[in-house]
Design goal:
Radius of gyration: 20 Å
Mean pLDDT: 91
Low-confidence stretches: 1-5
Largest sheet: 8 strands, mixed
CATH architecture: 3-Layer(aba) Sandwich
Structural class: alpha/beta
CATH topology: Rossmann fold
Number of domains: 1
Strand content: 15-25%
CATH class: Alpha Beta
Helix content: 25-40%
Number of strands: 8
Shape: globular
CATH superfamily: Thiamin diphosphate (ThDP)-binding fold, Pyr/PP domains
Length: 279
């Protein structure tokens, strides 16, 4: 990370574009937490890259004043991975939602956890496809009957992102709440500072398609204390009510870095292709 000399404010990391999220959307809190974290770290704006996929939460890069890329559905992590590998001098943060990250992007999530490339992944989880009118998502409860497509509920147990991340080998795993931007900012700050892949699940209520989630503010509670013992972390998740926040697991792991390519060898390969093309 590259630090700037002057003192910066969270607003310095916001763009002039006004969010189009529904009033009351939890993603506002995530935007505030992210800009608070960047200000706390005093990261130069030109040294930050924010990468997203598709969904309501994936619009977040447009609302910041850093470099950003709004990609395609489920592909935020491979794009962020490529950038983090090619430009290790940048602070790379990927953002998205539960559908984007755990459905079409689920395969990328697994391998990002195990590769341990130095970047941070923030998933705004509201257990619904908000942008496409309220279908059940991978984290939706089996008996949720709020969608006309699944009037009796999806009938499948939801995936549990923290358990998946732990099983796949992530070294930094946390859960925050969009209604607590200061607490979430602390988690994001610690995640960015972690030398490797940091995963932060954010409970972010959808006021439009899951209005009952506004009651989450009465159910959310701190409780996770960081451990480097994987077995202990799994046991804590077995007893979790899915509303516990904090840093669950932090363990130092070797950061994956590519082997530098031999420029001369690359030139010879390119020359061989040119010869073949001319024949």
């Amino acid at each position: 990370m590259s630090a700037t000399a002057p003192t910066v404010k969270p607003r310095d990391y916001k763009s002039a574009v006004k969010p189009v999220w529904c009033p009351g959307c939890g993603d506002f809190g995530v935007l505030n937490a992210l800009t608070k974290a960047l200000a706390a770290l005093s990261v130069a704006r030109e040294k930050v890259a924010l990468i997203s996929g598709i969904g309501c939460s994936a619009r977040l890069p447009a609302y910041t004043g850093v470099y950003g890329f709004h990609g395609i559905h489920g592909r935020a992590l491979p794009m962020a991975t490529g950038l983090a590998v090619a430009r290790p001098d940048l602070t790379v943060v990927a953002t998205g939602g539960d559908g984007d990250g755990f459905s079409i992007g689920g395969n990328h999530f697994l391998h990002a956890c195990r590769r341990n490339i130095d970047m941070t992944y923030v998933v705004m989880d509201n257990a619904v496809y908000g942008m496409t009118k309220g279908q059940a998502s991978p984290t939706t409860e089996a008996d949720w009957d709020g969608s006309s497509l699944t009037p009796e509920g999806p009938g499948m147990d939801p995936v549990h992102p923290l358990e998946i991340a732990l099983a796949a080998g992530a070294g930094f795993i946390a859960r925050g709440f969009s209604g607590d931007p200061n607490g979430l900012a602390e988690l994001v700050t610690r995640g960015i500072g972690y030398p490797g892949f940091a995963f932060i699940q954010v409970i972010s209520p959808c006021i439009t398609y899951r209005p009952e989630q506004m009651e989450y503010k009465h159910r959310i509670h701190p409780g996770f204390e960081p451990t480097a013992d994987r077995r202990e972390a799994f046991l804590r998740l077995m007893d979790d009510d899915y509303f516990t926040t904090g840093l669950l697991y932090r363990k130092e792991r070797p950061v994956w870095r590519p082997v530098a390519a031999d420029a001369a060898n690359l030139d010879s390969i390119a020359a061989a292709f040119r010869v073949q093309a001319a024949q």
